[in-house]
């Protein structure tokens, strides 16, 4: 972890300075009503199958929000306040988070209503598919929690060890938009003394401590977990119901990677392959306890975690170089946190400025909390980054996004990062979706390996019989498609605003939809 943790004995309050999951949405991804979301140029068809080609730079903002009723009133739009609220919450102090009033409760349907991308079913042992909200905005897995086997989505977060889920005692706006775990309904829940407060900079997550049975990738383990009774309101912009901490560091919620080793459930190794939405098929996958040779080509090249970071349990490695068009940036003695819980790439303003000196036509835009760069929209050159003496590409389609008539970089310089170590970068999904990543904590060692990803499978469609492909959750969806419970997603572009109803849903909602149509068909045949 980047920041300290402390135990306040007299208050029995655990406090964690959370340094993973950079809760950040750039200003350009928010509309004037204050609703924020990731990017897409796509129009959706066939239950959300992408029509964007693999080489296009994404353009229009996608404002994907849960279903609303007419009485819902958007909050006043304050661009500066929103930017402050969405800076990397792992790096800073926590102002108070305003909760919605009880009057708002009846205006929202409880449960997770987000439109997500469902992965195809993995076949390798110890593996589970990675769901996506975005495109390419956040990556999470589906687990089952408690004796009732409550399905929940949990963000994969190698940047921190804190593990928590939203609980039914949390009645705030952000929680009501998600599935929440009921500890009283689980016979396997074991409460522990003390409460937890996890600081994310512009907000906090508080909850109770306990142990619970968690099933993931076909394995059931008894893990420490916090069940939240309060969450930062900014979490309404994200589809996951909790966070699975995958760092090796000490944590107020217990360290998952250590626990699975103590229980001999599987080795403390996590291998991650993130999909790119424009590739057309969501073949994202995480393997616990080993690697899947089918997900990469060539050889995995490892870089050891330095001694200081190893002692702290941080997935951080030396950054050898960062270059553009054959020219290296003036960066030396840098390190990089390899963070699956962060969407973009972040560095200090000075380091990011050194990088963009190499990009012809780049221009700095100074925001209240971060530095952003515009570049000519005909830029096609990849950044190249070197770890362990091996060069990896970050293509323009991943680090560049077109917004109206300008193109913005997804490599940011942060200003207000109070616990951000000098010379440290955060390498998020903008980089990671280009490689097969292995986080190896076995044999009392820590190392990170990268390899070239295997080519994704070709997009498929329904067969001649009309039978749809089956996703990992068992629901009929097209591979790479987006699905939700019963949500209505609003796809917003500078040209049109088209309401779109998404079917085939996550969890119970999709089953209800399927059964409803079956009953309609039966009634028609009966007539």
For the record, the count of structural domains works out to 1
CATH architecture: Beta Barrel
**Silhouette:** globular
Structural class: mainly beta
- Determine the CATH superfamily: Acid Proteases
Rg from C-alpha positions? 22 Å
If helices are DSSP runs of H or I spanning 4 or more residues, what is the number of helices? 8
Name the poorly predicted regions.
1-18, 39-109, 462-470, 474-482, 484-527
Calculate the terminal CA-CA distance, rounded to whole Å.
65 Å
- Got a strand count? 35
The average pLDDT is 74
CATH topology name: Cathepsin D, subunit A, domain 1
Q: Approximately what portion of the residues adopt beta-strand conformation?
A: 25-35%
Which CATH class applies here?
Mainly Beta
Helix content estimate: 10-25%
* Biggest sheet character: 9 strands, mixed
Protein name: Aspartyl protease
Family: Belongs to the peptidase A1 family.
InterPro entries: Aspartic_peptidase_A1, Aspartic_peptidase_AS, Pepsin-like_dom, PEPTIDASE_A1, Peptidase_aspartic_dom_sf
GO molecular function: aspartic-type endopeptidase activity
């Amino acid at each position: 972890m980047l920041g300290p943790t402390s135990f306040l004995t007299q208050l029995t309050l655990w406090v964690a300075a959370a340094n993973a999951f950079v809760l950040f949405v750039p200003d350009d991804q928010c509309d004037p009503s204050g609703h924020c979301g990731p990017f897409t140029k796509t129009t959706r068809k066939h239950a959300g199958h992408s029509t964007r080609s693999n080489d296009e730079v994404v353009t229009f903002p996608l404002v994907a929000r849960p279903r609303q009723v007419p009485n819902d009133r958007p909050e006043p739009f304050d661009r500066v306040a929103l930017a402050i609220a969405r800076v990397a919450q792992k790096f800073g102090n926590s102002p108070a988070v305003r909760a919605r009033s009880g009057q708002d409760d009846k205006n929202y349907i409880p449960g997770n209503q987000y439109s997500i991308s469902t992965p195809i079913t993995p076949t390798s042992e110890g593996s589970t598919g990675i769901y996506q909200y975005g495109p390419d905005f956040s990556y999470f897995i589906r687990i089952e929690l408690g004796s009732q086997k409550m399905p929940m989505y949990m963000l994969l977060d190698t940047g921190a060890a804190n593990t928590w889920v939203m609980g039914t005692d949390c009645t705030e706006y952000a929680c009501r938009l998600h599935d929440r775990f009921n500890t009283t309904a689980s016979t396997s829940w074991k409460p522990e003394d003390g409460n937890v407060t996890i600081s994310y900079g512009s907000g906090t997550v508080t909850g109770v401590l306990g142990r619970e049975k968690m099933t993931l990738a076909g394995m059931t383990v008894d893990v420490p977990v916090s069940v939240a009774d309060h969450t930062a309101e900014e979490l309404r912009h994200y589809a996951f119901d909790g966070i699975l901490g995958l760092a090796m560091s000490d944590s107020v919620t217990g360290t998952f990677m250590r626990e699975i080793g103590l229980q001999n459930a599987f080795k403390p190794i996590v291998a991650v392959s993130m999909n790119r939405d424009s590739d057309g098929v969501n073949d994202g996958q995480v393997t616990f306890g080993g690697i899947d040779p089918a997900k990469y080509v060539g050889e995995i090249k490892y870089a050891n975690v330095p001694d200081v970071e190893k002692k702290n349990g941080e997935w951080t490695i030396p950054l050898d170089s960062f270059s553009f068009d054959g020219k290296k940036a003036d960066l030396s003695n840098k390190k990089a946190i390899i963070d699956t819980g962060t969407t973009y790439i972040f560095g200090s303003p000075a380091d990011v400025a050194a990088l963009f000196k190499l990009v012809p036509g780049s221009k700095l835009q100074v925001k209240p909390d971060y530095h952003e760069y515009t570049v000519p929209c005909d830029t096609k050159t990849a950044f190249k980054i070197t770890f362990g003496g091996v060069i990896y590409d970050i293509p323009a389609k991943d680090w560049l996004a077109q917004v109206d008539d300008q193109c913005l970089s997804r490599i940011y310089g942060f200003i207000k990062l109070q616990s951000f170590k000098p010379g440290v970068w955060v390498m998020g999904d903008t980089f990671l979706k280009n490689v097969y990543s292995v986080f190896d904590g076995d044999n009392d060692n820590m190392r990170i390996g990268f390899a070239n990803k295997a080519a994704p499978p070709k997009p498929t469609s329904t067969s001649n019989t009309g039978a749809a492909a089956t996703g990992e959750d068992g629901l009929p969806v097209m591979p790479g498609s987006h699905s939700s419970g019963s949500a209505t997603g609003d796809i917003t572009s500078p040209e049109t605003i088209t309401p779109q109803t998404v079917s085939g849903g996550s969890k119970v909602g999709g089953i209800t939809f399927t059964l409803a149509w079956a009953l309609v068909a039966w009634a028609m045949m009966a007539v």
